[in-house]
UniProtKB/TrEMBL annotation, chains A, B:
<dbReference type="GO" id="GO:0005829">
    <property type="term" value="C:cytosol"/>
</dbReference>
<dbReference type="InterPro" id="IPR014186">
    <property type="entry name" value="S-formylglutathione_hydrol"/>
</dbReference>
<protein>
    <recommendedName>
        <fullName>S-formylglutathione hydrolase</fullName>
        <ecNumber>3.1.2.12</ecNumber>
    </recommendedName>
</protein>
<keyword id="KW-0963">Cytoplasm</keyword>
<keyword id="KW-0378">Hydrolase</keyword>
<feature type="active site" description="Charge relay system">
    <location>
        <position position="228"/>
    </location>
</feature>
<dbReference type="InterPro" id="IPR000801">
    <property type="entry name" value="Esterase-like"/>
</dbReference>
<dbReference type="Pfam" id="PF00756">
    <property type="entry name" value="Esterase"/>
</dbReference>
<dbReference type="GO" id="GO:0018738">
    <property type="term" value="F:S-formylglutathione hydrolase activity"/>
</dbReference>
<feature type="active site" description="Charge relay system">
    <location>
        <position position="150"/>
    </location>
</feature>
<dbReference type="InterPro" id="IPR029058">
    <property type="entry name" value="AB_hydrolase_fold"/>
</dbReference>
<comment type="function">
    <text>Serine hydrolase involved in the detoxification of formaldehyde.</text>
</comment>
<comment type="similarity">
    <text>Belongs to the esterase D family.</text>
</comment>
<keyword id="KW-0719">Serine esterase</keyword>
<feature type="active site" description="Charge relay system">
    <location>
        <position position="261"/>
    </location>
</feature>
<dbReference type="GO" id="GO:0052689">
    <property type="term" value="F:carboxylic ester hydrolase activity"/>
</dbReference>
<dbReference type="GO" id="GO:0046294">
    <property type="term" value="P:formaldehyde catabolic process"/>
</dbReference>
Length: 283, 283
C-alpha cells in the first residue's frame, strides 16, 4: 500500500490540521482525508475519533465549520475525517442528485453493478485504520471512537454496532436513524444494495441494534435538533431509541429545542461529544 | 430609513445568528449584515462588537468559520458582521481582481469617479450604527468595540483611531497595518482615493496613530501569525507598533509561531479577542 501524500498543513489550537491524498484500494480511486493532530501528539501516541460527514460533504467540512479542534486539542485526541464517497470515477448518473452517488456513500459496501466502487464500509473500517496504523506513529489506532452527522451520524451508529469492540464509544448528530423507512435511505439502499430488504437490514442501525451482542456499558449519545427540517421525514431517532431500549443498549437521545440540521447546531454541542468520547478513550 | 428584513435565523450556543438585508443609503445598493445575538439579549440590552472581514469575504464568513459565537454567548455580547463592499452595481471592472472592487472596500470613502458608491467608512461608522439603534432594542450601541481580519483588521484600527471614544476597544488579526506602503493598499488607495498621498494618510492606521489624541488607557490587541505568507509583503505590523509606541498608544502585538493567515488562526485566538473587548465593554 502506497503511503498518503500530505497536501496541506495548518496550525490551529497548538496542533495541526493536515490533509492527505492517496490511491484507495477499497474505492478504486484517489481520495482525501484530514487529520487534526492535537498538541499532545508531538509527545506521545494519542487516541482518535473518526468523524463521518453527511450528504454532499468532503473530508474538510467538519474541520472548517465545527470547531471540533478546540476540545480535541484540550483532550489530546486526534480527529480523522474522510470523504463521503468515491470521486472522479465518472460513473453514469453519479452526480445527478445531491443525496445519492458522489458525496452520498452511506458508509456501506454497494453490491449493485455500476456502484461497485462505493465500498465506504470497507474503506472506513479496514483500509483507513490500516493506513493510519502503518503511517502515523503519533496515533494509537487501538483506542478509537466514532461520531458523525446525518448520513454520517447513521454511519457512526452502524459501524459501531457491526464491529463490537472496535470503537470505544459512538455518538451522532441528527442521524438518519432508520434509513430503510425513509426516502433518503430507500433511494440509497435500493440503488446500492438492490431490492432484497434483508441486505438493507445489515446497514440499518435500527435493525442492527435489535441483534447487537457487543459491550453495552457505554451509552450512545445522540443530539437531535427539534427544529431540524429533516427530522420527521428523514431522521426518526425515536425508532432507533425504542429498538435500542428493547435490546438493552443504553442511548441518551437529547432533543435540542430550536436547533436545526446545520453546522451551527453541531458546533454548539461538539464539545459535549468530544468529552463523551474522551471519557471512554482515556479510561 | 427602511428597516432591515430578516432573511435567515439559526440557533447556536443558545443564541441566534440572524441575517438581514436592506437598501443602504451610503452604498446605494442592497446589502446584507448578520448579528449574533447572545442568549442574554433575550433579557437585557447587550453590548456589541463590530467584526470587519478581509478581502473577498461577505458578512457570513466570520459566523461560519471563526467560532466567535461561543465566547460571545458566554460573555453576553452581540457580534455584528457586514459585507466588505457594495455589490451588484455592475461598475466596470469591479470584479476584475479579488483584491480590489467587489469584496475589497477597505472601509474608506472613495472619492474617485466610478467608485463613488464605495462608502464603507460612512456605512460602518454612521449608517449601520443608526440602523442598529433604531431597529434592535436588544443592542446597546453606546457600548461598542471593533475588531477584524487583514483588510478588516486594518479597518478596525482606522475606525477606532478616527473616532475617539466611539469604540471602547479595538483589536485585529493580521491587519494590513500600513497600506500606503504595500501593494494591496497602493492598488486600493490609488484607485479609490487618487494620487494625492495626503488623502491616503487619512485612512492609513500607521499614519493615523501618530496624531491620535483620543483615550490611551485601553491597549490595542494585535495577533499576527509568524508563518503568514502575506506578513512581509502586505501586513507589516511592526510599522504600526513603532508608530503607536512613539505616540504613546499602547499596543500588544503578539507574533504567533507557526500560524498562517486563515480562519484556523483566527479561531485559535478569537476567544482572547472577545475577552479583551469584554473587559472594556463590561467595565
Amino acid at each position: 500500500m502506497e503511503g498518503p501524500q500530505q497536501i496541506a498543513s495548518t496550525k490551529m489550537f497548538g496542533g495541526y490540521n493536515k490533509r492527505y491524498k492517496f490511491q484507495s484500494r477499497a474505492l478504486g480511486c484517489e481520495t482525501t482525508f484530514t487529520i487534526f493532530f492535537p498538541p499532545a501528539a508531538s509527545e506521545k501516541k494519542v487516541p482518535i475519533i473518526y468523524w463521518l460527514s453527511g450528504l454532499t460533504c468532503t473530508d474538510e467540512n467538519v474541520f472548517i465549520k465545527s470547531g471540533v479542534q478546540r476540545p480535541a486539542a484540550d483532550q489530546g485526541i486526534a480527529i480523522i475525517g474522510m470523504d463521503t464517497s468515491p470521486r472522479g470515477l465518472n460513473v453514469e448518473g453519479e452526480s445527478d442528485s445531491w443525496d445519492f452517488g458522489v458525496g452520498a456513500g452511506f458508509y456501506l459496501n454497494a453490491t449493485q453493478g455500476k456502484w461497485k466502487n462505493w465500498q465506504m464500509y470497507d474503506y472506513v473500517t479496514k483500509e483507513l485504520p490500516e493506513l493510519l496504523k502503518a503511517n502515523f506513529s503519533e496515533l494509537d489506532t487501538s483506542r478509537a471512537s466514532i461520531f458523525g452527522h446525518s448520513m454520517g451520524g447513521h454511519g457512526a451508529l452502524t459501524l459501531y454496532l457491526k464491529n463490537p469492540g472496535a470503537y470505544k464509544s459512538a455518538s451522532a448528530f441528527a442521524p438518519i436513524s432508520n434509513p430503510s423507512a425513509v426516502p433518503w435511505g430507500k433511494k440509497a439502499f435500493s440503488n446500492y444494495l438492490g431490492d432484497d430488504k434483508s441486505a438493507w437490514e445489515a446497514y440499518d442501525a435500527t435493525c442492527l441494534v435489535k441483534n447487537y451482542q457487543g459491550p453495552k456499558s457505554v451509552e450512545i449519545l445522540i443530539d437531535q435538533g427539534e427544529a431540524d427540517g429533516f427530522l420527521k421525514e428523514q431522521l426518526q431517532p425515536e425508532n432507533f431509541k425504542k429498538a435500542a431500549e428493547a435490546a438493552g443498549v443504553p442511548v441518551n437521545l437529547r432533543i435540542q429545542s430550536g436547533y436545526d440540521h446545520s453546522y451551527y447546531f453541531i458546533s454548539t454541542f461538539i464539545e459535549d461529544h468530544v468529552m463523551h468520547h474522551a471519557k471512554a478513550l482515556h479510561s
